Automatic annotation (TrEMBL):
<feature type="domain" description="Serine aminopeptidase S33">
    <location>
        <begin position="90"/>
        <end position="208"/>
    </location>
</feature>
<dbReference type="InterPro" id="IPR022742">
    <property type="entry name" value="Hydrolase_4"/>
</dbReference>
<keyword id="KW-0378">Hydrolase</keyword>
<dbReference type="InterPro" id="IPR029058">
    <property type="entry name" value="AB_hydrolase_fold"/>
</dbReference>
<dbReference type="InterPro" id="IPR051044">
    <property type="entry name" value="MAG_DAG_Lipase"/>
</dbReference>
<dbReference type="GO" id="GO:0016787">
    <property type="term" value="F:hydrolase activity"/>
</dbReference>
<protein>
    <submittedName>
        <fullName>Hydrolase</fullName>
    </submittedName>
</protein>
<dbReference type="Pfam" id="PF12146">
    <property type="entry name" value="Hydrolase_4"/>
</dbReference>
Length: 232
């Protein structure tokens, strides 16, 4: 849930924390709908920070990985390459929300044993990449630029928001031959509104929440279209 953060704690403490958050959001959304909407908008585009520390920890113990950076849209994107994608067929890894490329590291030896090079990267505000916020349109744009840089992959393995985004990111000149889509995130907007209801957020907050996202070039129509196209 993007309204919560995964912090180790006892079951009782976690329940108390969620109850406190629910009560706070219920009250704030009725008294200060504008401020609450902007706060929730910011939370919606802010990945969990824990992924950054985990990415660094996994990288420290990884072998034979070539790290690099790409400057995309003014953001430094961390890349991870095993083998030589210029000479070998390669598999592109696309992580999900609040995740990171090195989360796939355990799969790399098996892919290499089958003759593939492997390419991974961290989306903005994820893993070791720059940035503090991200969202699905940006996931799509960065995927497109990574695809243009490395060329046509033999396959793509994508998870969650990465799986949803690759459907829209693929372009004719680098379209993958095969797709492995793991638990694609099909309805980000529906998920957001479901969480609002679960936390008792007043509906008059929604226009302010959407207004915050509109300012970032994110529209709920885009997410609705995502669901519509996938269903077709």
């Amino acid at each position: 849930m993007w309204l919560t953060r995964k912090i180790p704690m006892s079951k009782f403490t976690n329940t108390l924390r969620l109850m406190t958050m629910r009560g706070t959001l219920m009250l704030a959304s009725r008294i200060l709908p504008g401020l609450t909407g902007r706060y929730l908008g910011r939370r919606f585009v802010t990945p969990q920070a824990a992924g950054r520390a985990r990415a660094a920890a996994v990288l420290r113990t990884s072998q034979d990985v070539q790290t690099g950076t790409l400057e995309l849209d003014g953001i430094k994107i961390s890349t991870y390459v095993w083998g030589d994608p210029a000479q070998q067929p390669y598999v592109l890894l696309a992580h999900g929300w609040s995740s990171y490329a090195m989360r796939f590291a355990d799969w790399v030896p098996s892919l290499q044993s089958m003759g593939y090079a492997v390419v991974g990267f961290d989306q903005p505000a994820h893993g070791l990449s720059g940035g503090t916020t991200s969202h699905m349109p940006q996931f799509v744009e960065i995927l497109q630029q990574v695809g243009r840089h490395f060329g046509k992959p033999e396959a793509v393995i994508a998870h969650s928001l990465g799986a949803s985004s690759i459907v829209f990111a693929q372009e004719e000149h680098w379209r993958p031959e095969r797709f492995v889509l793991i638990a694609p995130f099909l309805a980000p907007a529906d998920n957001a509104f479901h969480q609002f209801d679960a936390f008792g957020v007043a509906h008059k907050v929604f226009p302010h929440f959407e207004g915050y996202l509109h300012a970032l070039r994110i529209t709920m129509r885009l997410f609705d279209c995502t669901c519509l196209i996938v269903r077709r």
